[in-house]
Amino acid sequence: MRIPHEVSCAICHEIVTDPITLDCFHHLCAAHVANFGNGDPVACPICKASSPVPEGGLKVDTVKKIVVDYFKQQLALKEPDEESEPLRPIPVTCAYCEEQEATRRCVECHGQPLCEECATSTHSKGYFREHTFMGVRDDLPKKDKEKDDFRMVCPEHGEKLEFYCCDCRTPICSHCLIVGCHQGHERTKMDEAILTGKDTLGAWAQKMNQLKASTKALLEAFQAADEEAIKNGENQRSTVNYEMDHLREMIETKRRQLLQQSALEEKQKRVQLQVQIQQAQAVLSEIESLISRSEDLLELNCDHHFVVLVLQLIQDMKGRSSQQVDDRRRVNTAFRSLNTDQQVRVIGELELGYPQPVMQVLGGLVHQTEVVAPVAPFQGSSATTMPYVSHSNGVQHAMMAPQVVHVGHVYRQSLPPQ
Fold it and tell me: Where is the B box-type domain (predicted)?
């Protein structure tokens, strides 16, 4: 039984106690409404709609309280699961006096809960004289259990609620229309209101199923896009690693080439310098030999011997002095510099390429940004008039799907700067 969700409080989320119905048709426990300031409007916790508080405060919806008490009773009668803890019986309040705990139910009134006093005083006279009673927790006869559609009784006049007030949107009895607070209000028969409500709810349920299908398809598309985004992200990172590894290999190759060029340039310079060094060493050795010979001649004791031998030495010195070492072709020892500023700037400016605004880009589909057309409006009764106005006079209510923007899930390619 999932109905208790419809009779739960919007604040405590428990089955509502003494329901207060707001203008938006959501309901709260009376204890929660009492916490609001006097005269201040009550904001619905669900739809945030504001409901003004009339003089004397908000009143308990007695008709809805009958429905709530009925479902409390059904929950109390529900058999607990074998593995779950047994449920404690929930006290059921009398549908008439709304004060005493109910001790029996009326079979003809489809299980209407009654206390002892109301059963013997009010419910045993006139129209109710032939009604029979049963225990408050006894099962209803099978014919009544087949359809849970009992006719509720007006808490104020004790009459069956055979009409529906279209202005107050609540079930009423004939006395409410004649002498009650619903005089002059637009009304319809309960059967017609029930039929209109079921038709309108069925139409909205069909619309919800359509919206469910479209939302499910959109969710599947988002999930597929998410998977594709993950895949493309991994591909992009693989591309980045591949390109960076390729750049690293190119840099290593270029480094080896530049080192080889530097070694070759050094070798060429040194070969030239070695030739010049050898020449200079040979000249230096010859000069040292001439100097040594001159010193030997100067140490001779016989001057005649010196005069005879000195001319040859002087001639050799003249010849040597006329042949000096050639220093006009000196080797340039400065090496060419290496400037990588431009290459570093290019690498620094390297960025992922942006996709072009086209639908097809080199092996992948790029989704352009677009807005999905809204769902066609639903022609039917709105929530504020359903089910009290027929479909032909219903207010057109446009149920628009949210605008959805497709996110491009193809990643940018790794491209060098232009």
Answer: 149-190
